């Protein structure tokens, strides 16, 4: 039956498409202009103070300015989770706030220096580029709520302008969820303060933020072997999930971080032609980021670790009954740059030089066998680069280049892409990236109470060669990536950081479309992945599909309510998914158990009333019918049938 469902999904997506929601902000605005006046929801033009809603703006790290959007779309439903990102390529653990396993990978980015590891805790960790700044005509509050499993999360943003040139944004995100299983409690806090300023002539501007993040997770190590069997057999004695035995009874991981960031620009040249149509300017800029983090793993458990010596080895501290691993990280980045904008270069050009320093330290040095694990290790880099963004006769061109000129391994990056946009909102883009980048710090240097989890090694830079393309039309949105990866760094089946010297050939194609049949819509996303080489160290499912059938319409006189009522389906083929190591907070290879080949169905009702969006969802509604074989790792089940309620509320004060 599962195979027939999957073939049916593939069959319907091959039909011609009548229309599609486009994710491009510019396109959405254009499409909205074409709507008839009676289709425009109430309160969409201006608020009671006379300010238009398009005047409420968010400025990203890359200086892109976008409207604060209060509309309801199916894409926003897909991203209504604690990460605020579409989770199509992820597998969620049972409790909200836990990590995700991967169904697909994206390697296109401009990062070449080593970064903090502990990748399983990065989903709710805000990096520099994740912080947004604002410009609003009136004080603005945005509340984002979602119910958890005996708990909830609330993301609250308050931003206001002091005059036209100063803006303050305060963001607090709190998440606490007990979970249905033993020892999966999550407690996360992210607090940030951001300030931006520009003078009336826009000759000088700056922005700064401070963020404190505390991410605490109880770690249960997954279900015991007997519990996995009882779960799959749907043993009625364990229908209350808190009765199921887990591997760890008193373990906790904790990541704490504080970051200070400051960026400012001074315009030193500004001129216009005689018609005041072409602007030329030159800006001098600088930014500095300082971040201090601490990761700890505390546990009084011993039996599970002692019973798995192939992964953990032996405990080095036998005097104390437990484990208390602590790692400190300090990261500093300084960058000076020049920006030149002129029609003579078809756009803008930026040249920069960066100083980067990363320190990882422990309480003491450690000797494990013949290996000496020092107390601390510092990595320093100096790099130089340039970035150009231009437009020529409707074709946009982007080029980015960076080279490490001193310190560590000499990483480099060359990233070029080009594309065009037609009047019918068709957008096509293609690019190539040639990059060598250092692995994350934990793979090269780590110290632990468990003998197997200690290493001090020098890995070669990872080499990425990527060709990609994207096309967006009103009918279809398709992405294709061809990756060649050499020196891929991973954690082997014994959880030891390793490097693969062979080349990985990875193809990824993802297609999205949406049918419309009157008030009914069918949104489909299918991803196909293929490995020509490297499947022994790199694992992904061959097919992943998500199909959402829903009804959308306005209700009541004056159309104050927009509602979406539907059912969602997700499926992926079997593969050897990585297992989770709670000590490292990393995923590692395993060759014993495949997961996948099970469908999950969700039922949802979404609503929009003026500036409020409401989300009601029943997850895995067919859990009792499709069998208890839904897992995210070999010993960690996905979510059972559960009811979730969410809310996003915008206040233009």
TrEMBL record:
Signal sequence bounds: 1-19
Q: Which UniProt keywords apply?
A: Signal
Q: Which is a Pfam family this sequence falls into?
A: Porin_10
What is this protein's record name? Porin
What's the source species for this entry?
Wenyingzhuangia gilva
